[in-house]
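Summary for the steering committee. The consortium agreed at its last meeting that each partner would contribute one worked example illustrating the joint modelling workflow. Our contribution is presented below. We chose a case with several input lines so that the handling of multiple components could be demonstrated. No manual editing was applied between input and output; the record is shown as generated.
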Amino acid sequence: SQTIHQWPATLVQPVGSPLSLECTVEGTSNPNLYWYRQAAGRGLQLLFYSVGIGQISSEVPQNLSASRPQDRQFILSSKKLLLSDSGFYLCAFRDRSSGNTIYFGEGSWLTVV
Amino acid sequence: AQSVTQLDSQVPVFEEAPVELRCNYSSSVSVYLFWYVQYPNQGLQLLLKYLSGSTLVKGINGFEAEFNKSQTSFHLRKPSVHISDTAEYFCAVSDGLRTYKYIFGTGTRLKVLA
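What follows is the complete predicted structure of the assembly.
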């Protein structure tokens, strides 16, 4: 069965520091991968999605970036965090054999101080 | 571009009462529709989905939803709620033609009262 993991689960970072959130998927090949951000009371905002290695589509201009160095690895990064980057970050994947459904990881809480 | 509207940000309801959470989406040639539930500090869990076929979809935990193409709606219902149903519920839509972008609504916080 497919599983998805993301880490770290919680992170407190000072303004201006770098960020790296990692997500890995097991039990599937060539999945679509997604990063969402959930800010308090604002639902889920699609940040990036990837349909293959090295293929990243950005949905919202911001100081975040994403990379997919391997088929089942998706990384969310920032060179310099802003206070507004605080939120709950969710990685998700879509397995084409699962009826076009996306499945989410456990989430990562980022607090920028 | 696809969009999803969840009209109610919060819905309080007493235990064992019925509930309906509303979801409307922008029209498209074909869509896939989903409801997810999120418990505090957790990721999202799939409740149910509509891909094709019967417009009444049954999911986990006694929830069901009905796809209404003419009204572009996909409302979630449960005939009798429990305290444990207290959570945030998200409606999502995917463009059936491309199926790699999933757009979510802003969520509805369901609070079940004793």
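The longest strand of chain B covers residues 87-95. Chain B has no helices and twelve strands.
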